[in-house]
TrEMBL record:
InterPro entries: DUF6311, DUF6311_C. This is DUF2723 domain-containing protein. It comes from the Bacteria. The keyword Transmembrane helix applies. The chain crosses the membrane at residues 7-30, 100-117, 129-147, 153-172, 184-208, 294-313, 325-350, 370-391, 398-421. Residues 15-415, 441-546 form the DUF6311 domain.
Length: 561
């Protein structure tokens, strides 16, 4: 019986992860033909980015996606379409159905792996089954992770908090063997193909572990150098192939400090606009907590703090010893906290700026402007330490009871937040989007033209850009109706100039269907070739169809206004 139990212990974290997925998300997103839940602003570009990447020819680097964005297009990375899965599924695209989405499978993997690495962390503290199970539940039922599924946010790649837990496990595990290079190279490479923020956090934890290992003489100087350049080389290669370097300018973004970590966010259950994540703990009055600043611990974990403080007092030497052994990690966590706060310090509704820090942080801040995300490793260390102090102070049966009650409170009290997620994601499955583009004109135009261009606006600045992109994807048109995380600024400026010249001369590309913005509609009317081109309004869109009147197969839409 003991042998049987040991053989199947690995199933416990898998069951925990699956149960939490079914509780919060539900099974309907696993249907690959269900794309209805991806119709929101952010998720629409994830799906469209995959659709255009799927139908485009293979390139080198393999992550390039030339059809989504036209001249501004860059790669699968900047549509946040999960480059890893996009590349994997593109390799078997010929056998995939239409439509096909892999984002539901991804969410299931995130929940299961979150519990798996939470379990691995707990095994560093105890071999007691119930302590490990309840501790895993607290680490895996992470509110900053679940927050990414909110309907106004939906950053699906950023649900991959399991990568942070995996990096923490490798950092805290003192029994790493000679395969540590492979472990870290794989983890960092995996992270690089998911999201740059996650990759940065994993990289920092790897550097901490590398320095700690060398300081403790667990590795030699030669091993240090070999591992450093092996991991960095792997990272650069994967960044290159995924398409991170596909834009020459525009890697940074403005607004650093606007989404910094607020010092009360650990106990702030959210804002009413996004939904409160506690039945008992309300919104803190006067707090202007933005959606990126959400780092709520949850009532269950907050209730562990008094008992953990008692344990800290009783076991102060033990904690100091652990800090000394992990001094590089402690330093890194302090630096991450300071960076996440940024130069615009927020304590609830109190805000003040440290101007001296702004020039120092501006460069890196442009790359990671949503700096509150960089607090996530600190968040998990806080939860882990709270659990560790409970395990250290109390007998196993009492520690398990405390952690079990905390987990139950955590799940029940936060249902005010995650139930809204479940309600939306369990909506009736849909294999199409509810597009306003229902006129028969679009079907004819989609088959007649090769490109769809929004002019002069670019990149999600036009209302209903996602439906324009969906139309283009449906008919295999290249388009600039795209929403990308980063764009090449210099290329964008040149395209604006080119569009201005086209509108001035009326010399439109014959293979391109144009969506005309109201602000330039008068100018377009002045220079249109009325004998060949058609300018009409269809379903609320100003449409210019070059050479439409010369097309024998095209219907007569000249009577439309």
């Amino acid at each position: 019986m003991v042998y049987f139990k040991k053989q199947f212990l690995f199933l416990i974290p898998l069951v925990i992860g699956l149960a939490q997925f079914l509780l919060v998300v539900g099974p309907r997103v696993l249907d690959p033909s269900n794309i209805g839940w991806l119709e929101m602003v952010d998720t629409s570009t994830y799906y469209l980015g995959w659709e255009f990447f799927r139908n485009s020819p293979w390139t080198f680097p393999i992550g390039l996606s030339p059809s989504y964005g036209l001249e501004i297009s860059n790669s699968i990375v900047y549509s946040d379409s999960n480059p890893l899965l996009a590349i994997i599924f593109k390799s078997v695209r010929d056998i995939l159905p239409h439509p096909f989405q892999y984002f539901g499978i991804w969410l299931l993997a995130c929940f299961v792996l979150q519990a798996w690495f939470g379990w691995r962390l707990m095994k560093l503290l105890s071999n007691n089954l119930w302590i490990c199970a309840f501790g895993t539940g607290l680490l895996s039922f992470s509110l900053p992770m679940l927050w990414r599924l909110h309907q106004n946010i939906q950053h699906l790649n950023l649900v991959a908090h399991f990568l942070i837990l995996a990096a923490l496990y490798l950092t805290l595990n003192k029994n790493q063997n000679h395969r540590r290079i492979l472990h870290w190279a794989f983890l960092i490479g995996f992270s690089a193909l998911i999201h740059s923020y996650i990759a940065a956090m994993v990289m920092l934890l790897w550097l901490v572990n590398l320095l700690q290992s060398r300081s403790a003489e667990q590795i030699t100087s030669k091993q240090f150098i070999v591992e450093y350049f092996s991991v960095i080389g792997t990272l650069i290669f994967l960044f290159w192939q995924a398409g991170y370097f596909s834009i020459a300018t525009g890697h940074g973004a403005g607004g650093f400090g606007n989404d910094g970590f607020n010092l009360v966010s650990l106990i702030d259950s959210g804002k009413s606009d996004y939904g409160l994540w506690s039945h008992l703990l309300g919104d803190l009055p006067g707090d202007e907590l933005g959606h990126e600043r959400f780092n709520f611990l949850g009532l269950g974990i907050i209730l562990l703090i008094p008992l953990s403080l008692y344990s800290l007092i009783k076991n102060y030497p033990y904690l100091m010893e652990k800090i000394k052994k992990n001094i590089f990690l402690v330093i890194m966590l302090v630096l991450l906290t300071l960076f996440s706060i940024s130069h615009q310090v927020g304590i609830g509704s109190i805000q003040f700026k440290l101007d001296l820090l702004e020039p120092i942080l501006r460069g890196v801040g442009g790359l990671f402007r949503a700096s509150a995300r960089m607090f996530w490793p600190v968040f998990y260390v806080i939860v882990f330490v709270l659990i560790a102090l409970i395990v250290k102070q109390f007998k196993p049966r009492y520690a398990a009871l405390i952690l079990g009650l905390a987990l139950a409170i955590q799940i029940i009290d936060t249902s005010s937040g995650w139930m809204a997620i479940r309600s939306r994601l369990m909506a009736e499955p849909q294999s199409t989007w509810n597009t306003p583009m229902v006129d028969p004109f679009w079907q004819i135009a989609g088959k007649h033209y090769q490109k769809l261009r929004v002019s002069p606006s670019l990149l999600a600045t036009e209302p209903d850009w996602n439906y324009l992109g969906y139309f283009a994807a449906t008919y295999g048109l290249q388009t600039n109706a795209a929403y990308l995380a980063r764009i090449d600024v210099s290329a964008q400026e040149m395209i604006f100039l080119k569009h201005a010249e086209v509108m001035r001369t009326g010399n439109y590309d014959k293979d391109t269907l144009y969506i005309i913005d109201d602000v330039v509609l008068t100018e377009v009317r002045k220079n249109i070739n009325v004998n060949e081109d058609l300018l009409i309004q269809v379903n609320g869109f100003n449409v210019l169809a070059p050479a439409w009147k010369k097309c024998a197969e095209c219907l007569d839409f000249s009577n439309k206004k």
